[in-house]
Amino acid sequence: KSSGLPVSMETQEEFSPSDLNVVVPQSVHFYEHPVPCLVIVFRTKIRRSLDESIIIQLGKRDRESVVPTHFPCSCIGDGETVILYHYASEKIEKVQEQHDKTIHPKDHYSVFYIDTVGGLKTKTKELFRNKILKQFKFLCVYGVKGMTVEEALKQDGRFLDSLGEFKLSDNENPNRLTVRTQRVDSLHQKAFKIRLPLNKREGVENPTTSILDVARVSGRKWMESRFPGDSYEKALNRGSEKFGKIQQSFSEVHRIKKLLVMGKSVCKINVYDICEGTGFVLFDRFVLTNAHLFRGCVQGKNLLDQINVYALFNYDEPVPETNYFYFSAEKTLIDIDMELDFAVLQLKPDDNVKVPPGLLDRFGPLPRNGEACLIGHPAGSVKKIDPTCIIEPEKREQAVMDHLSKYKVKKVILKKVNELKDQGIDDIMMGGEKAEKVAAYNTFMYHGASGSPVFDAHGQIFGIHTGGYGMSDRVIEYAHPLLTIFEKFVINLIEMVFSVLFSVVLFP
């Protein structure tokens, strides 16, 4: 009904789908597969204007919690009461053009609550698209596990796009804060208030600042983060020619086109509820990634019963604009090698979706120096590209010391050096066991980018991004050479075949 009057859909007996065009949520009598909440509520085709002016309340408690119209039915309990409010001429929710309309099982989602009473610094700030939402206590928000808080609120459609760098404060413990880039996995069934920053950013306070000035400052900050302390100036003076080559190599359109085409074969690896990484298609349905993603998840080559692995392709844009597709991996790995830190997965076939082409024919040798570029999913985010340069073995020690020079105090630097030595950084330094066996470089791609392909300036893949040294402050990263990995993969396959044949001969 209009004007905010509720329509209750509590029992199937009270309302018939044929005469009122409504059905009970979670009523399997009418829908075999889970669908968005509003599709279940209305039997007729939903008009966009109607979609935007509806509020859906879950439960009988007076104006307790409301969900978005695209709320997944799988998250609504059996026998749950659903109350509809229709506000004529009001826009409550921004209709999202969701490319991926897949509704997952309940345990794939994290469902949490945002208090309509804002937290710190929100008294003069509008948080929602319509003030009518403040008549209710909570906005119930959902997100697929692995999604960030910011992505979940953007997907929701009821929050303003101008929230900026907000945080969430826990209603039970206001001092416990969740940043907008944190994943929603740990927020399930918790309630929060939106909290805004104490001070505006400089870019907002000074609207007269030119775009050119901002670009200059941003560029310098990026370089200083990559080369802290006075190492930034040293890098400019000592290596301006090298940086120019990197810029030239990865700013030419034909190179970018090649990278983007090959990037379609790069995927986000999701070891469900455990960790995330990156991988890429070798050939057919075989995907190469890092073995350490499966530490504690396998027995031999078999994934543990509770472990499921997915490969997401085309995850190039954040939700709701994203248009990714995914495959499940077989429960038995084709190969896993902890020494060279690689694993080969086989994707389950899907008649409706083709696996992107393999990159095996793009393999190249490990360069000792020169330009490089990584494509991956750092922190489980959308696909990113990072141009960098290879650090030769004889220059790695200086690169590390340049990075540590920002600490200034010698005792702190010595402490950091000892921490790096404990992590085994000497192995990749000049004279170390792996000095000539890996490619070293600096990159912003840390956690979640393990398994990313590393390209040279000619578009050949020479390495798989494997790890780095340093904890929260990464100092140097490295990649294992692909030709070495593939050679070991072939040897392992041959040994496996001979082992099977040998067992057949001995035990026919």
TrEMBL record:
InterPro entries: Peptidase_S1_PA, Peptidase_S1_PA_chymotrypsin. Signal peptide: none annotated. GO terms for biological process: DNA replication. GO terms for cellular component: chromatin; nucleus. PANTHER family: PROTEIN FAM111A-LIKE (PTHR14389:SF3), SI:CH1073-475A24.1 (PTHR14389). This is Protein FAM111B-like. It comes from Poecilia latipinna (sailfin molly).
